[in-house]
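Re: your question about DNA repair protein RecN

S., sorry for the slow reply, the queue was backed up all week. Below is exactly what I fed in.
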Amino acid sequence: MLTSLSIKNFALIEKLDIDFSENFSIITGETGAGKSILLGALGLVLGKRADLSSLKNKEEKCVIEAQFEIARYNLEPFFEANDLDFEKQTIIRREILPSGKSRAFVNDSPVNLQELQELGEFLIDIHSQHQTQELSEENFQFDIIDSIAGNTKEIAEYKALLKKYKNLKSNLSALKSKLQDASKEQDYNSFLLEELLAAKLKLGEQEELESTFEQLNNVELIKENLDRSLSIAEEEQFGVLHNLKEIKAALQKIAAFSPDYNSLSERVTSVSIEFDDIVSELNQIAESLMNDPEQLDLVNQKLQTIYNLQQKHQVKTIDELLEIQNSLDEKVISVDSLQAEIETGEKEITESEAQLDAIAKTINEKRQKAIPVLTEKLIAILELLGMPNVRFQIEATLSESYHANGKDNLQFLFAANKGSDFGLLKKTASGGELSRIMLAVKSILAQYQKLPTIIFDEIDTGVSGEIAHKMGEIMKEMSKTMQVFAITHLPQIAAKGNSHFKVFKSTVGEQTQSELKLLSSEERIVEIAQMLSGKDISDSAINHAKALLN
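Result:
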């Protein structure tokens, strides 16, 4: 419940601090006194957008602070989900700076407007006459029926299943689209894959083949130079090997005379051994070298195949060709894999539909039982409110479609008078009738839901006399289980409140400002008498006011 409200520098309010009690509070005042300003301030606390026109003094910031007792609202999960400190006495503060920027805080933690709006829905229901149009909205009508039916758990379960079902349908659609695209490219991908597989590509193969090709293609030149190298190395009298042996023998004769000569002798010996190995390898290569036109042709063909594939796929290495081969292999295999996934997805959707159908049937059955209860209660209350011949025709029939809250199609029709045809509420009911129906609905919902604080903003427009008295009685009854505010011009309703606040204008210097005052018992008699007879209060009006209050 709303326990206190503080307003500073908002519209015509310079500074206001007021405490509220539970049960039924009345707010009255002349037209233009500032009742709408109070609602505007509460609207800002609940997350409505603000602008600089809200500031009374454009040089100072506007601050609106509301304190709520929320121990019974089960809001701990909301606070935890939004990383906010939960306090039984929760304070919401809204600041509008002269720059036009707006800030909001819950228990001193900054929040954005969306979070504030979501929290506000749990705290206050501000109901004005134009909001009676909600009665014509199907979702609101379902909410009324489901509250009586006790479908909260089932609806939550249904919504979770519906979300899963929609995800399954979306995934299946994506898989089918992917399969369709893959199938179009299947033949071409298979051809490309077979072409690459036929080439039997191996890592490092290209470099090896290019080396082999160069050797086979230049075998005569290689052999000629190998033979010449061997001839120079092995010539009997002037070959390199013969000369090295001569040098080696000569140095060995003087090696003992000096460490330098000995070092040179050892180095020549080392060169001689290394060169001997070189000559040996040259002989082996020369002996193994042969002219093989067939092998040259095979190597050339394989290289041409590799080059053609590289050009076709616009790459430069066998590594890249092998990556393409693996990718094509996955694409070709994925068609079969996708088909299997689609079959699995279709099976999951069938199972999901069965679950949705089962819980939607349960929801429908509970609604069928709740509709006569709702109709009976509505008629009983509306008869008290001057609508003795009112009738409702409410039907919830199962359809083939999955809606947000079940599979029902809802028909919610209304007839105000005997002999009149049933019609849609928004087309058939007058403004006064809609106000009374909405009051009846809220009264019924209060029996089944833990409603937040409710503010009725001139819901009594268009009624008077005994009907106003009954409306006040209904609000009074609602206030036994929740906090109720009524902004009213009717003395019959004003007299029903546990506490009575008056909004009025005053002049301070050159400034006009709105103020809110909790009336004493005597002041309340005078206020209700004025509502009965105007500014010139008669004795009969005073007596009538006392009678209403008693």
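DSSP finds 17 helices and 15 strands in the chain. The CA atoms of residues 168 and 348 lie 7 Å apart.

Happy to talk it through on Thursday.
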